[in-house]
Request: fold
Amino acid sequence: MGKDVRVKLNSGSVRALLKSEPVQRDLRNRAQRIAASAGPGMEVEESVGATRARAAVVTATFEAKAAEARSGALTSALGAGR
Reply:
C-alpha cells in the first residue's frame, strides 16, 4: 500500500477561519432559514467565542415555546438549515 499521509493543521489559522465573517454569515443564514421555517416567535442569536462563531435559534415568545412543546416546531425545522 501507499504511505500514510500526515496533516498538521495550523490551529491559529483554523481558529481564525471558524470565526471569520464568511462562516458567521453562513451560520446566520442557516439559523434564519430554520427560524423562518419554525414559525413566529423564533429568534436567531449569534456570538463569536474564543474558538468559533455560533448561531442558535431560540424560542423568544410564550407562543413559540408552546409550539415547540406541543409539536416540536423548532426541532422539525432543522432541515431548513441545510
In short: Strands lie at 42-48, 53-59. The chain has a mean pLDDT of 95. The helical segments are 11-18, 21-38, 62-71, 73-76.
